[in-house]
Amino acid sequence: MTVWLVGARGMLGGVFAGSLVHAGVRVVQTGNELDIADREAVRALVRVERPTTIINCAAYTKVDDAETHAREAERCNVLGPENLALVAHEAESCLVHFSSDYVFAGDANQPYDEAAPGAPASVYGRTKWEGERRVLALQNRGRLYVVRTSWLFAAHGNNFVRTMLRLLAREDELRVVSDQIGRPTYAPDLAGAVLRLVGMDARGIAVEPGIYHYANHGSTSWHGFAQAIREGALRRRFPVRAREVRPIATPEFPRPAPRPRYSVLSTQRFEAETASVPRPWQDALEACLDELGASAGVA
Ligand SMILES: NC(=O)c1ccc[n+]([C@@H]2O[C@H](COP(=O)([O-])OP(=O)(O)OC[C@H]3O[C@@H](n4cnc5c(N)ncnc54)[C@H](OP(=O)(O)O)[C@@H]3O)[C@@H](O)[C@H]2O)c1
Which of 64, 174, 190, 297 gives 256 a disulfide partner, CB atoms 3.0 to 4.6 angstroms apart? Predict the structure, then answer.
């Protein structure tokens, strides 16, 4: 079995690279030198390597920059997944593509399920929505999975946990928005969940292809998440200078791209199909902080 790991040097890609080693499969890793918007380059790699599964962790993820770089975001987030889906079909490979809670408007009061209508407010969200539509349009022609996730964090790469630890060590006080609610997701948990979806775990049963939500259990605000990071850091004696994490409202921290106010994903479909339940985000955060402590990767 051969897995092509696309976007292997990103945050999620790096985590998959580790998980797949343990799964005992042959892994072909590519970074941005293999441009997924270049269909012939994608096709050529698949012809040579013949992957049984393609895991696409590549994306244009600079949410604020996307507002002024829509073309670049579209190349990677729309054309890229479309190319991968087409070529996966030609080669009879399985494809896993990731999407985001930012495809939703964020005006709901209960968790979004997979069938909820997308209404992205940002360019990034719109390109992720169009990208998943292009993959799903080819659904009846192959084994295609779209996995929406939210608020990803890991012990490496650019993410909220690492940013907060850096700021906690440097600043006297942090101000973090408390009126945006979502579900934090630990990238290693997501990687394990995906291997279960496609039958590459000990269970060995692939679930029905299509769209799935995956996130750790429970929801919080960015402020609640930041407070939990500070408490976890203090318990581990990581450097913490900030005496307080102050809640602020979104208008007090203006950003170029609008964020959903409420983007809690329902993971019921994942739970029913895989007979497994994501652990609470607080437990996952502890695991991440332990990993950071063990690797001295703090701040
Ligand atoms: N991070 C989150 O909170 C979050 C939340 C929900 C969903 N997601 C989704 O989860 C997936 C993984 O996100 P992530 O945070 O791990 O992303 P990331 O760390 O930004 O990594 C993305 C990778 O894609 C590569 N890339 C960019 N353009 C490319 C192209 N045209 N061809 C090939 N590779 C290209 C980048 O390489 P270079 O850096 O070298 O350009 C980078 O290594 C994405 O689909 C993202 O939309 C993320």
Answer: 64
**How far does the centroid of ligand 1 lie from the alpha carbon of residue 116, in Å?**
24
2-159+183-218+263-279, superfamily in CATH? NAD(P)-binding Rossmann-like Domain (3.40.50.720)
Contact 260, 111 (CB under 8 A): no
Instruction: Measure the CA–CA gap between 141 and 94, rounded to whole angstroms.
Output: 11
**pLDDT one-digit tens code per residue, 45-85:** 999 999 999 999 999 999 999 999 999 999 999 999 999 99
Q: Is 263 in contact with 101 (CB distance < 8 Å)?
A: yes
Which atom of ligand 1 has the smallest separation from the CA of 158?
Answer: 19
Instruction: Name the catalytic one among 60, 102, 112, 124.
Output: 124
Say what the pTM is: 0.97
Rounded CA-CA distance 24/161 in Å is 30
Q: Per-domain residue ranges for the chain?
A: 2-159+183-218+263-279
- Whether 124 is catalytic: yes
Q: Is the pLDDT of residue 299 over 60?
A: no
